[in-house]
Protein: CRP-like cAMP-binding protein
Amino acid sequence: MKDVTARSILRPEDEVALEQVSHLIGYPANTVLIRQGDDSDFVLYLRQGFVKAVRPDPSQTTPERAVPRIVGLTGPRGVVGEMAVITEAKRTADIVAVTDVEALYIPGSVWLEFLDQNPRVVLSLYRNAERQRAALTDRRVESALSTDQRIAKALLELKASGMGVDDSGGLRFQNIGQLDIAGLAGMSRESVAQSLKRFKARQIVETGRRLLIIRDLDAVQNIAALEMRSSA
Structure:
């Protein structure tokens, strides 16, 4: 499973420099920070919280209903909106706060000047973009897997994001619902509901209103690993 959470591309001294030319802004959970199709005139550097990058899934979307697909998860010390500013392209996805978010708002011109002075960051940006493209390619390959395998891989992707809180009951994810899991797995919400029902019957997960708890991580990993055994 590829970890699509953006890796930090900035060093501590970079953060200090950017703090001088940006301002801190807060977003409540479920806020749309960036909208697909908007002009690209700023970058966000996350200090706290997690966001998801979402765009319509062409395999699930109909004229009556646009089904979102999660194409990226970003947490603290990650940057969002950075590539569109460089390419002067329209935003390619919505960026939505999964949790409360605190971020540095960096004007596009400031970001470009910063990159001009720090070419190593440009290299890190393109490496990170390549990792994300590879992760999306893996997801397309995984479309042939069983529904339970795809759900298991989506759960492992959530774990890799660092978004979960480990407590005595398992790994807890707030503000994560069936639609989010469907978006990660590239499946319909109805298929996800049936698969999660089987997982819950085996006490692998627990779900509630905008809540997911992974109770048995070993079982999730074993289900995901069936792909490797079946293809051997």
About this structure: Helices lie at 12-19, 82-87, 108-117, 119-141, 147-161, 178-185, 189-201, 217-231.
